[in-house]
Write a structure and sequence with these properties.
It is built from seven helices and seven strands. By secondary structure, it is of the alpha+beta class. The chain folds into two domains: 77 residues, no CATH class; 125 residues, 60s Ribosomal Protein L30, Chain: A (2-Layer Sandwich), CATH 3.30.1330.
Length: 215
């Protein structure tokens, strides 16, 4: 039985290898991870529910079904991630994969003018490219979060973060992303990603992030 499960997992992982766009090396994609987990779960359930003489057959059938279910979300998000990386290469926007979620990190210095919440006109085309991908992959919720550094008044920073997130969210909607998918929040200076004691750290903290969460 263990051999059957192992073979299913190996096949699922091998079939879902992908190439890292930055290093060129082969890696196990999130699709494969989901397929592997699904295969194990399906094999165990299939074996447990089958009769004794059909236990091996039940494990194989369960593993195949589990792998298909487990790989579904991962495969969908893998494709979306690849499309976003292709569109955003060289724009300064970072694409970060976290499990089945994708985060787009937009530094404030390329997105907004100093102490402004209106998106820079030269950044419109980048956001339009993001919107094109989000319209194609419409099985995700888009959480737009604004962040600031710790300079200035807390309440002012909170308002500015909300306004900046709102500007990005509204541009997504204006480019055809359904408004019901877009959730906008501002967090002011509460969640820094670097020290506010240096100019570089404060610049890193001034940002808008889009988190793409599968439905």
């Amino acid at each position: 039985m263990n051999k059957v499960i192992l073979v299913c997992v190996v096949l699922a992982l091998t079939a879902c290898m992908s190439t890292d766009p930055y290093t060129g090396n082969q890696k196990v994609s999130n699709t494969a991870k989901g397929a592997g987990i699904g295969a194990v779960a399906g094999a165990v359930i299939g074996a447990a529910t089958a009769s004794k003489k059909d236990r091996k057959k039940g494990a194989l059938i369960g593993a195949a079904g589990g792998a298909a279910v487990g790989s579904g979300i991962g495969f969908y998000m893998d494709k979306q991630e690849a499309a976003l990386r292709a569109k955003l290469e060289g724009t300064g926007v970072r694409v970060v994969r976290e499990g089945d979620n994708i985060r787009l990190i937009m530094p404030g210095n390329i997105t907004f003018g100093s102490d402004r919440h209106e998106v820079r006109p030269e950044f419109y085309s980048t956001l339009e490219s993001v919107a094109l991908v989000l319209k194609e992959f419409d099985k995700t919720v888009i959480r737009v979060a604004g962040h600031t550094d710790s300079e200035g008044d807390d309440s002012y920073n909170q308002t500015l973060s909300e306004q900046r997130a709102g500007s990005v969210g509204q541009l997504m909607i204006s480019h055809g992303v359904m408004s019901g998918r877009v959730q906008v929040s501002g967090y002011g200076e509460r969640y820094p990603v670097a020290s506010n004691d240096t100019p570089g750290g404060r610049q890193a903290n001034r940002r808008v992030e889009l988190e793409l969460v599968p439905l």
